Amino acid sequence: MRKLLLLFICLAFSLCGSCASPAPYTRISGFVEGTTYAITYEGADTLKAEIEALLARFDNSLSVYNSASIISKVNRNEAVELDSFFVTCFSLAQKISKASNGAFDISAAPLFQVWGFGSQKISDIPSKAQVDSLKAFCGMDKIRIENNRIVKTDPRVSLNANAIAKGYSADVVAHFLESRGKRSYLVEIGGEIFCRGINQRGSPWIIGIDRPTDGNYTPGADVQAKLKLSGKGLATSGNYRKFFVINGQKYAHTINPATGYPSHNNLLSASVVAPTCGEADAYATVLMVVGLDSAKRMLQLHPELDALLIYAEGVEFKTYATPGFARNMVQ
Questions:
Q1: Of 10, 20, 159, 208, which is most buried with the most CB atoms under 10 A?
Q2: Residue 226, C-beta contacts closer than 8 angstroms, at least 6 positions apart
Q3: Which tens digits make up the pLDDT trace of 41-69?
Q4: SS3 at position 176
Q5: Are strands 267-274 and 232-238 parallel, antiparallel or unpaired?
Q6: What whole-number distance in Å separates Cα of residue 125 and Cα of residue 162?
Q7: Nearest Cα to Cα of residue 187 among 96, 278, 269, 64
Q8: In this structure, what DSSP letter does residue 208 have?
Q9: Alpha-carbon gap, residue 321 to 331, rounded angstroms
Q10: Are 254 and 283 in contact (CB under 8 A)?
């Protein structure tokens, strides 16, 4: 009788998932697109080789750090056929550029270069004449796709997709994991995240959002907020890691395509939750470009987005969260 009772109890626990040990999860990490990645997924199967091959193909399409990539060849005006990664990313960039009235613009690559946020650093700020001359061949209206190739109105037009490619690559890996039957996973590439399902403890994925203090270079070392996330992408843009100071003036890496100058406002960071990580990545940049008040108005026009905005008011940090973002914050 006692043996039968013990058997019944164990069977009951097995049915509710409490008797068995937690299902195994696998974590892989590495370096890609000029940054790091960390991926956790359910199951003990080893997918690292396939994921790294996928990311290598992505790097060969959209990485400006790779001289052999499609985007590098486009920038050098070489005849090159586009792949699906490039076409999808370019189309999404066009869509968000239009939705943001040009605040998002991957054709602003020459401005990133002249301000020292490209391959070369600078020792002095560029002149207004330099900036204005470069603005003349920036703009998504100056470049298009025809017959799977890029067509430019001016050969000096060039692209930098860094503000959307990392997020989009997280979506690409997420789609791959789902094609392998994974229903619980977290993909993080350069700080941009897409996750689904639950973690190994059976709990929701909890994502930390860094406090945007200058010098906070270590993700997770100083966290401003925590967020439950599943089935969506999350990306953060801020002015506290990529910047330089010349003559006592701070210049952050967020360039306003309308002015040609780094954005200067009291918004310190923007964390965006969106249906895809590519969208989250791009819109986080948009909000940093337009500033706090315009960011709030834009979020009202885009109910598919949620966001946490951290801004300076004097010497204090203040926050603004959309209702959807606030509902998922963890105390």
A1: 159
A2: 206, 207, 208, 209, 329, 330
A3: 999 999 999 999 999 999 999 999 899 99
A4: helix
A5: antiparallel
A6: 22
A7: 278
A8: E
A9: 14
A10: no
